[in-house]
């Protein structure tokens, strides 16, 4: 547990100094929202219908960028081998990295949701429930992309392989997150919302257990 916390805090300190991940992903996500806003405008109805999909597509691609930088930064600094040889269970390294990525993605998600609301003229039924959807959604994205980023970090085509491996796995997250966000942005139905939220929560729990168990075997091989 202490090792996971150390990795988590280290990544946040590095990001606090460099702003590398947040600046890159925020620029990318903002660009996606802006371009799609122009593409769907000026039809307000179409823009509102597309808002949830645009938001989560931007976050999905941004999560790949963030996860890639999380492990590539260790490799470029020559610290990756030392980190993997550190005498602690590798599960804690994964959990620390995934938690740091999830927190950064949550910050990005809040900013991107605000941009989406502005450019797509969307009004959310509950900011608290939107925050819950963002938290569960970006956690699922981060768990998957952090896992596959560690596997592909030493490969020559890691930038291409990471989305190829990650995107098929995150389909349930994307469906649940988009459906939940659509309900929050119009025609809110509590029963439907909580059904999709349970899907997100279930995916996060299963992915957390499977990825944590598989991570040591994946990086050691």
TrEMBL record:
How is this protein situated with respect to the membrane?
A: Multi-pass membrane protein
One Gene Ontology term, aspect cellular component: plasma membrane
Record family assignment: Belongs to the CcmB/CycW/HelB family.
Report the coiled-coil segments: none
GO BP term, pick one: cytochrome complex assembly
Q: Which residues cross the membrane?
A: 21-41, 53-71, 92-120, 126-148, 160-178, 193-215
Its recorded name reads Heme exporter protein B
Is Signal included in the keywords of this UniProt record?
Answer: no
Purpose: Required for the export of heme to the periplasm for the biogenesis of c-type cytochromes.
GO MF, one annotated term: heme transmembrane transporter activity
Keywords (alphabetical) are: Cell inner membrane, Cell membrane, Cytochrome c-type biogenesis, Membrane, Transmembrane, Transmembrane helix, Transport
- The protein's predominant localisation is membrane
State the compartments where it is located.
Cell inner membrane
């Amino acid at each position: 547990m202490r090792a996971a916390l150390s990795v988590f805090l280290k990544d946040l300190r590095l990001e606090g100094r460099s702003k590398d991940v947040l600046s890159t992903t925020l620029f990318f996500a903002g660009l996606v929202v802006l371009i799609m806003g122009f593409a769907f405008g000026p039809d307000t109805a179409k823009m509102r219908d597309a808002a949830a999909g645009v938001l989560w597509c931007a976050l999905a691609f941004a999560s790949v960028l963030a996860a890639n930088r999380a492990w590539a930064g260790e490799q470029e600094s020559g610290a990756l081998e030392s980190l993997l040889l550190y005498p602690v269970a590798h599960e804690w390294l994964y959990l620390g990295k995934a938690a740091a990525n999830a927190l950064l993605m949550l910050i990005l998600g809040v900013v991107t949701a605000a941009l989406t609301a502005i450019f797509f003229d969307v009004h959310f039924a509950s900011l608290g429930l939107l925050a819950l959807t963002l938290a569960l959604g970006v956690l699922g994205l981060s768990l998957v992309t952090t896992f596959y980023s560690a596997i592909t970090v030493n490969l020559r085509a890691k930038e291409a392989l990471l989305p190829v491996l990650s995107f098929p796995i995150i389909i349930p997250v994307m469906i649940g997150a988009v459906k939940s966000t659509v309900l929050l942005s119009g025609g809110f139905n509590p029963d439907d919302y909580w059904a999709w939220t349970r899907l997100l929560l279930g995916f996060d729990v299963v992915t957390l257990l499977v990825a944590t168990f598989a991570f040591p075997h994946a990086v050691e091989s």
